[in-house]
Design brief:
D-isomer_2-hydroxyacid_DH, Rossmann fold, single chain, alpha/beta, six-stranded mixed sheet, seven-stranded parallel sheet
Length: 330
């Protein structure tokens, strides 16, 4: 018997090949060619398993997927999956906990450097024949000697702290759960209150999930409490930051710059005013997308499917919604 896996994100041919190569026997996979709703739903009627990265899986999609046993998130952020609908349908939901923490952490630091050194601007001007060496000295900074504040200290936040150790920066963090003393010492990270994190950080990097509590967390008030001249990095979720308030803060000069991999609307609206600012650096929600991590994430995802089929427990780190009676009967 072969189990059908429907992959809802549009992937490049080489990535499809890598995912298919990691697939165990007994599965076949079909990839989306379009993110449009009708094209997405067309992949669902025969699906035993669904993998989704950035594509949503809404309540009405469960009705179009009568055979599905598991919605497998490619990555960790499950805010676009309707968990209540999954529970009603008895469909399990799992993530690949920590699987892309390293690439996202590297991207966060890349954004810090790109914002501090205005890399997109000087690259663009260089290609236009403009040599901006003199101008850059007055607006560029180094990470060394700065206080980097991490809002969220889970896998990705800790990976950022680990990678920052060679930059001679001070690392502080705020999280609802304090890390153990051994971890804090190893990562040279100190816990602080949210107020201290905002007011004292030269670089604030966001690493919390998008929840009812974190949506709009970095609003105009929070931005005003940030240190003048600080930069803001977001590789978590767009809805955490009020983008209009951020634009105002950057345009006024309160914040020196910002680097975002995520936006409230994705794909980002080309008319988004943030994109008009030279002190803003953006990327298309690509922080976790590196080719040399595809095999690992794929094997984790297929491993969760195999565990479900074999009646074994999916890792507690990965399992978000346990399988219900409806799924067990499929």
């Amino acid at each position: 018997m072969s189990y059908r896996v429907s992959f809802l994100d549009v992937m490049a041919p080489t990535v499809r090949e890598a995912i298919t190569a990691a697939m165990p026997e007994g599965f076949d996979i079909v990839f989306a060619d379009s993110p449009e709703p009708d094209a997405q739903r067309a992949l669902l009627p025969d699906a035993d398993f669904v993998i989704t990265g950035t594509q949503p899986f809404s309540a009405d999609m469960f009705a179009a997927a009568p055979r599905v046993r598991l919605i497998q998130k490619w990555g960790i952020g499950y805010d676009k999956i309707d968990l209540e609908a999954a529970r009603r349908a008895g469909v399990a939901v799992a993530i690949t906990y920590g699987a892309n923490a390293g690439p996202v952490a590297e991207h966060a630091i890349a954004l810090m450097l790109a914002v501090y050194r205005r890399l997109p601007l000087i690259d663009r001007k260089l290609r236009q024949g403009v040599w901006m060496k003199a101008e850059m000295r007055s607006v560029c900074y180094q990470i060394a000697g700065k206080r980097v504040g991490l809002l969220g200290f889970g896998n990705i936040g800790r990976m950022v702290a680990h990678r920052l150790r060679g930059f001679d920066a001070e690392v502080v963090y705020h999280d609802l759960r304090r890390a153990d003393p051994v971890t804090e010492r190893a990562l040279r990270a100190r816990p602080v209150s949210l107020d201290e994190l905002l007011a004292g950080s030269d670089i604030l990097s966001i690493h919390v999930p998008l929840t009812a509590q974190t949506r709009g967390m970095i609003d105009a008030g929070a931005l005003a409490r940030m240190k003048r001249g600080a930069i803001l990095i977001n590789t978590a979720r767009g809805g955490i930051v009020d983008e209009q308030a951020l634009y105002a803060s950057l345009a006024e000069g309160h914040l020196h710059g910002a680097g975002f991999d995520v936006f409230e609307q994705e794909p980002v609206d080309p008319a988004n005013p943030l994109l008009t600012l030279d002190q803003f650096v953006g990327s298309p929600h690509s922080a976790g997308g590196v080719f040399d991590n595809v095999d690992y994430v794929a094997r984790r995802a297929f491993g969760n499917m195999q565990a479900l089929l074999q009646g074994e427990a999916i890792s507690a780190d990965d399992l978000i919604v346990p399988p219900g009676n409806a799924a067990a009967a499929r």
